[in-house]
Design a protein that fits this description.
Blueprint: H1 21-28, E1 36-40, H2 60-67, E2 70-73, H3 75-78, H4 83-91, E3 98-101, H5 105-110, H6 117-127, E4 137-140, H7 150-159, E5 166-169, H8 174-177, H9 179-191, E6 195-200, E7 216-223, H10 228-246, E8 250-257, H11 263-278, H12 297-300
Parallel strand pairs: 1-8, 2-3, 4-5, 5-6, 6-7, 7-8
Helix pairs in contact: 10-11
C-alpha cells in the first residue's frame, strides 16, 4: 500500500490524536454488548506475504485462513467477483472467518458513484454469498473526490442496499480540514449507520480523525518499514483498550506496509499484545525463518 508513503518516517509524529468528542458518545450508547476483534492483512498471495507460507503450500487462501480470522479483500477493488467465485472463497475458509471486500474501482473511481446503482447491486448480490462470513464491505473514494461531490455521495448512500454492512473511507484533505464539511459527512454516514474508516499512514496524518460513527472501529494501518512500526502498534493497543471500556463492539484492524515485508510478523506482534491487554484468545499467526521453517511464538514476537 503506497498511499501516504514518505521517505523520512523518522521525522513523522505518529502519536495517535485525542478522540473526537462524538466517539465517546457513540461508544457509550453501545456499552454492555459483546466485543469482537478481527485482525488481518490486505491480501493472501505469496508475492505480498513473503516469509509467511510454508514451503509447498498449494492453496494460499486456505492456509491463510488457518492463521488469521479475516482478510481485507482488496482484490475486489480491481474486479467485481462473480457469485461462483465468492462461493469458492467461502468454501475454503473456516466458519469463524470474515471477508471485508472493497467496492470495485469502476464504482468509486471511474463512475465516481454516478449511475452506479446497477454495478453496486450486482456486487452486493455476489458478496451476499459470503453469508455469515461477510464482515463488512467498504467504499474507498478517490483522493480527488471532494466535498463538492457531497450530493453524489449522499445519493449513493441513500440507495446503497441496507442489508449489506458498509464502511466508507474519504481521502481528500478538505473532508478533514473544514469543520462544516466534516460535520456534514459525519452526520450523513451516522444517519445510515455506516462506519467511518480510520487510516494510519505516515504521509496523511489528517486521516487519523479519531471520529467513530458506529460502535465499530475499522482501522487500516500502514507500516512505514521502519522500527517505529512496533511502537505505533503499541499505542494502538492503548487506544483500543480505552474504546472497549467505553463500549466498542467490533474491531476490524488491517495491517499493511508500504513494502509488504513484515505484515504477518507485525500482525503476530499486535495480536499477542491485544490478547494480553483485553484478555482475548485470538490465534497468533505463525511466520517463517529464513530457512523456510516455522517460528515458535517466542521467536516471532
Amino acid at each position: 500500500m503506497q498511499f501516504g508513503k514518505v521517505n523520512n518516517p523518522e521525522d513523522i509524529d505518529f502519536s495517535i490524536p485525542s478522540d473526537h468528542p462524538d466517539t465517546t458518545s457513540v461508544l457509550n450508547s453501545s456499552k454492555g454488548k459483546d466485543f469482537n476483534a478481527f485482525i488481518g492483512c490486505a491480501k493472501w498471495n505469496k508475492q505480498d506475504l513473503k516469509g509467511f507460507y510454508p514451503r509447498g503450500t498449494k492453496d494460499e487462501l486456505a492456509y491463510y485462513a488457518t492463521q488469521f480470522n479475516c482478510i481485507e479483500l482488496n482484490a475486489t477493488f480491481y474486479k467485481s467477483p462473480s457469485k461462483e467465485q465468492v462461493k469458492i472463497w467461502y468454501d475454503k475458509t473456516p466458519p469463524h472467518f470474515k471477508f471485508f471486500p472493497k467496492l470495485p474501482n469502476t464504482i468509486s473511481h471511474f463512475k465516481r458513484l454516478v449511475n452506479a446503482k446497477q454495478p453496486t447491486e450486482e456486487f452486493c448480490d455476489a458478496i451476499a454469498h459470503f453469508e455469515e462470513k461477510l464482515g463488512m464491505t467498504f467504499l474507498q473514494l478517490h483522493d480527488n473526490f471532494k466535498p463538492k461531490d457531497f450530493e453524489s455521495l449522499k445519493k449513493y448512500l441513500n440507495e446503497f442496499p441496507k442489508v449489506i454492512p458498509l464502511a466508507v473511507e474519504v481521502r481528500n484533505s478538505e473532508w478533514f480540514s473544514d469543520k462544516k464539511y466534516a460535520d456534514e459527512y459525519y452526520e450523513l454516514i451516522k444517519s445510515h449507520k455506516i462506519t467511518n474508516i480510520l487510516v494510519d499512514t505516515a504521509g496523511r496524518r489528517d486521516m487519523m480523525h479519531m471520529r467513530l460513527s458506529t460502535d465499530t472501529a475499522f482501522v487500516r494501518w500502514v507500516g512505514a518499514n521502519h522500527p517505529s512500526d512496533y511502537k505505533r502498534l503499541d499505542e494502538w493497543i492503548g487506544r483500543i483498550t480505552k474504546w472497549k471500556n467505553e463500549g466498542l463492539k467490533n474491531l476490524y484492524f488491517f495491517i499493511h506496509q508500504n513494502v509488504e515485508l513484515e505484515s504477518p510478523l507485525l500482525s503476530a506482534y499486535f495480536i499477542e499484545k491485544l490478547n494480553k491487554s483485553l484478555k482475548l484468545d485470538l490465534q497468533i499467526p505463525k511466520t517463517l525463518n529464513s530457512n523456510g521453517t516455522q517460528t515458535s511464538k517466542n521467536e516471532t514476537i
